[in-house]
TrEMBL record:
Listed transmembrane segments: none
A molecular function (GO) term: glycosyltransferase activity
Glycosyl transferase family domain boundaries: 217-368
The entry's keywords: Transferase
Annotated protein name in UniProt: Glycosyltransferase family 4 protein
InterPro entries in UniProt: Glyco_trans_1
One Pfam family, short name: Glycos_transf_1
Amino acid sequence: MAVVLEQEIHQGGGYQQSVNAARLVMRLPRDLAEPVFLTLHEGNLAALERHGIRASHLRVSAAARVLARIEHEWPNLHGPCRTLAGGAALEAQLSRRGIDLVYFLSPSLLARHLDTLNYITTVWDLCHRDEPEFPEVRRGREFEQRESVYHSILPRATAVLVDSEAGRYNVVRRYGVDAWRTHVMPFSPAAAQDISDEAYQAGFFDVKERYGLAGDYVFYPAQFWPHKNHVYLLEGLQRLEQLHGHRLGAVFSGGDKGNLAFVKAKAEKLGLADRVRFAGFVPDGQMPYFYRQSVALVMPTYFGPTNLPPLEAFANSVPVLYPDKPGLREQVGDAALLMDLRRPDSMARHLADLMASPGLRARLVAAGHAKLARHSDEDRLATLRAIVEDFRRRRAAWR
């Protein structure tokens, strides 16, 4: 079974979730499946090795990448692009390795290039349909391209892995995938969040001291896409001071996806620049320090239905403020304070309550731990194992 990791380490939650899925594959019995880990990015090899994953570099030529992009933008050119790219070049590489089944750990264009080999594919979200207003799913015909890819790869998949029941419902309803081929594989915290108190103390650094913050802060790890809605958090901090008298700061981590300058200008305009810090990319091992020293994770994203940071906050015993939106509210249940994304006042009120009530904080932390416990790796492994066992029975029917 080829296990394909396409995300780069700097891509944040997508990379972390792919690593989690790869680590799960390693626990499959070897008499059921022999995994061959492949990554498109040579720079991932050392990072994966640290997780005990020995991967090889799957080489895709520059010409093939260009042709794949052309095909992505103009799906009707699928046939000519395949011919120019050397026909079934990718499939030939995989077949030479003796591959029977391909498991794409993230949403992948490469599945379109498999004519004979069977594959498992992953759908993290369908936010281009849920929130089509945002430029990242609208510009450059991105909406149309995603629709073309999903309509092409999902119905042909041996199995489609989704993050939640809401995700399953959307895949079945929007793309005509049989419900029994759609399997829920809930997200789990990044492996780096599993750190003992002893290890935490051994590597300790003071976040406020490192970033020159005079007071407490809320934390938001997210790439700077418009849909991440950083500006709402800034407006909420301003309202927290105006309505409740608390001067709270913020630490943002994540790379620029085109919206960072706008967020910085907004912080200046609201008079918050002296207490807002931009940490950029934060290595895995440092993330627990940002979480545990914060007042709360505040994540006003529009995209879901699930995200990794709430789970990581639960693992680090940190309260969560999260959007009151369908799918997202189901992810956190009673383990988070739900914000109305139309009203930054709601964020301010929740933070004021949290800062005034140690009991509320303790209740949220306990509920977060309980929420994590409802989905174990054993459950996820059982789901994956059942998919592979079912495929193996079919595969035994031909030479």
